[in-house]
Amino acid sequence: MKALKIFLASITPGLFLIGYNIGTGSITTMASAGASYGMSMTWALLLSCIFTYFLVVIFGQYTAVTGNTVLSSFKQQFGKGFALFVLGSLLLSEWVSCMGVMGVVIQVVQEWSRPLTASGEGFNPVLLAAIFGAVLYGLFWQGQHRFFEKILSVFVGIMGITFILTMFMVIPDPKEVIAGLVPKIPDGTNKLLLVAGMVGTTMGAILYVVRSILVQEKGWTVRDLKLEKRDAFVSAAAMFVLSIAIMASAAGTLYPRGLKVENAIDMVNLLEPLAGRFAISIFVAGIVSAGLSSLFPIVILAPWLLADYNNKPRNMRSTSSRLLVLFGVALGFVVPVFGGRPVFVMIISQALAAIATPVVLGLMLILINRPSIMGGYKASRQRNLLMGVIVLFTVMMAVAGIVGIAGQI
């Protein structure tokens, strides 16, 4: 038991990334891919998770070697202009994402709860937003990083168990999963948008900026590089397993019947008659856990990013931090109160994040090649080649996403 606790403590930064990364946007994208194309998109998911592992290692190693976080380094090495562009893009993307994620979670719970209410309209969305918002802000009020890690670990655990259970209830033919590892673009009107969405939800720039902060919080140095790599592997592997479980749940039930998933509500409406009330209840619990596990890091990112930019200690109990988090929580009321399409809001947030990703990776490529910064840990030729390929890949995916979104408007 003691050994297990030590191991879990050593991978908490990775668990934090999983909690942030596997949210309602990932669920909708993976379920849509599974419903539309079965398991034929498995290759795109695997490739993005491999790239994510490599980048998580790079950004973590940079902070372990230099002791500096990403945004403060960008400001110091490239000037305020680049740093403010990255900071502004990430903050805007995360605040828009707050609206979309909370909207999706509330709509899913409301749809699931319709049979439980006399009116048949489900639980009141504003009341649900108030409850979820109060839970998030109450958890944040503790103000301790270790407490944040424990909460995220619980959310990730619940999410993982529920999605994997659902997959085994409706699992498709394993041969389909293996066949899906062969790279190909299937026929379909939204194929580019889906591929870009799968990559975007797995390889967003914010993931790597946060990784840098987490490594500094953990106090890892060059002596911990082996531990940092193991943590990165656990994180990327878990992202792949959870994402493939969601895709398989849709591929095993909806794909054979030609049913499509356009948003999170579709998953509730379409899966329930096929998988049963119990299975869909488990799946909804996973969606709620995924939503909260991504909302919790999202609302605390604003004070983290600003502290990173200003190269100041992260004091989560300061008045400014609490006001920023309260603002993020308040954004969760936008869709329930004023209406709107939360999935479309999520698409906007992912598009904003896609703009910053190639910039962040390009700037990091420059930094890891400066001997004055990295010393003996300067990037090798092989690492530079792979990093260059990934930067080009993210640019291609950003373009594909913009073309895909334009085709849906």
UniProtKB/TrEMBL annotation:
Membrane topology: Multi-pass membrane protein
UniProt key word Transmembrane helix: yes
Compartments where located: Membrane
Keyword presence, Membrane: yes
Principal place of residence: membrane
Keywords: Membrane, Symport, Transmembrane, Transmembrane helix, Transport
Transmembrane segments annotated in the record for this chain: 43-62, 82-110, 122-140, 152-172, 192-211, 232-255, 275-307, 319-338, 344-368, 389-407
NCBIfam families: Nramp_1
Record's protein name: Nramp family divalent metal transporter
Upper classification of the organism: Bacteria, Pseudomonadati, Bacteroidota, Cytophagia, Cytophagales
